[in-house]
């Protein structure tokens, strides 16, 4: 399989790329800018900033699956709600729509536990818990999840 990985140069993305390559898959990294990537990455495509990257056609060409890990990450000092919504929610919806148009049947999305809230005191979160995202990052990840259900 050829797998497009967004966020391939990040912490989790690096481990995912290595695992995919070890299992014999072709790893295509979607990059913000040209730069170094793991040697296990066999293909690369520069997509630019997620906020402006609504052109996914080249990145998705001949792809069998997508692992979407890229995001504007949680930072307590970053309260730019619109930037989070654009990077994390709308870009995710655009990628999912483009993948669907391309006939790609599998998209794995890395969300955040912060969608569930800021912490529990007695029991771990479960899939049945009502989401309680707080702050621009968590809210944008929750909205991305909703967009994916729509697509």
Describe this structure in a few short sentences.
The chain has 151 residues and is α/β, with parallel strands linked by helices. It contains 4 helices and 5 strands, in the order βαββαβαβα. Strand 1, helix 1 and strand 2 form a beta-alpha-beta unit.
What does this structure look like?
With 151 residues, the chain is an alpha/beta fold. It has a single domain (2-150), classed as NAD(P)-binding Rossmann-like Domain (Rossmann fold, 3-Layer(aba) Sandwich), CATH 3.40.50. The protein has helices at residues 11-22, 57-60, 81-101, 135-150; strands at 2-6, 26-31, 43-46, 65-68, 107-109. Strands 3-2-1-4-5 form a five-stranded parallel β-sheet, with helices on both faces. It is globular and about 45 Å long.
Order of helices and strands: EHEEHEHEH
Rounded mean pLDDT score: 91
Q: How far do the termini sit from each other?
A: 23 Å
Q: What is the structural class?
A: alpha/beta
Give the neighbour order of strands across the main sheet.
3-2-1-4-5
Number of beta strands = 5
Give the CA-based shape: globular
Task: Classify the beta-strand content into a percent band.
Answer: 5-15%
And the CATH topology? Rossmann fold
The profile of the biggest β sheet is: 5 strands, parallel
Descriptive terms for the model:
single chain, 151 residues, alpha/beta, Rossmann fold, 5-stranded parallel beta sheet, 5 strands, 35% helix, 15% strand, globular
Helix-strand blueprint:
Blueprint: E1 2-6, H1 11-22, E2 26-31, E3 43-46, H2 57-60, E4 65-68, H3 81-101, E5 107-109, H4 135-150
Parallel strand pairs: 1-2, 1-4, 2-3, 4-5
Helix pairs in contact: 3-4
């Amino acid at each position: 399989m050829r797998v497009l990985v967004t966020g391939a140069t990040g912490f989790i993305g690096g481990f995912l790329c290595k695992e995919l390559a070890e299992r014999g898959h072709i790893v295509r990294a979607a990059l913000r800018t040209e730069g170094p990537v793991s040697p296990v990455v066999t293909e690369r495509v520069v997509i630019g900033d997620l906020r402006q990257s609504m052109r996914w056609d080249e990145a998705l060409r001949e792809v069998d699956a997508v692992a979407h890990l890229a995001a504007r990450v949680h930072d307590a000092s970053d309260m730019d709600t619109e930037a989070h919504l654009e990077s994390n929610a709308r870009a995710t919806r655009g990628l999912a729509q483009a993948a669907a148009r391309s006939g790609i049947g599998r998209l794995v999305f890395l969300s955040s536990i912060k969608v569930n809230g800021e912490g529990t005191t007695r029991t771990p979160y479960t899939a049945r818990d009502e989401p309680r995202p707080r702050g621009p990052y968590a809210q944008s990840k929750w909205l991305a999840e909703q967009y994916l259900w729509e697509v």
